[in-house]
């Protein structure tokens, strides 16, 4: 399957919009290397195999790393949630969770280890709670 990926500009734009929505005007990148990781690593192929072979693992990577890398000075968790939903939408899926489920997901990722095991759990959650949209 051919995937559509987010760009650095997409993440920066989402962070800016998230901060504007909450009345905050400052968007500052404090960890540009982390931004590169989030953009490039889901696309990586090693020895002919994708590092993250499913849409769900790619989306979970984006969510987890956007939350944990603290790329921006503010709004990292909100940005992570929105860019994950955007990534899924770009690839033909819509995440269907209530506000409380979304908050619980983000709190779980925030308070859990930055590990492969947690990423797998997030991938399963995203897959179970996403529906195919018409493209």
Automatic annotation (TrEMBL):
Query: Which Gene3D superfamilies does the annotation name?
Result: Fic/DOC protein, Fido domain
An example of a GO molecular function for this protein is: kinase activity
Q: Where is the Fido domain?
A: 6-128
Q: Name the InterPro entries for this protein.
A: Doc, Fido, Fido-like_dom_sf, Type_II_TA_Toxin
Q: Which NCBIfam families match?
A: DOC_P1
The record ties this protein, via PANTHER family, to: HOMOLOGY TO DEATH-ON-CURING PROTEIN OF PHAGE P1 (PTHR39426:SF1)
Name the UniProt record assigns to this protein: Toxin Doc
Native source organism of the sequence: Lactobacillus gasseri
Q: Which gene encodes it?
A: doc_2
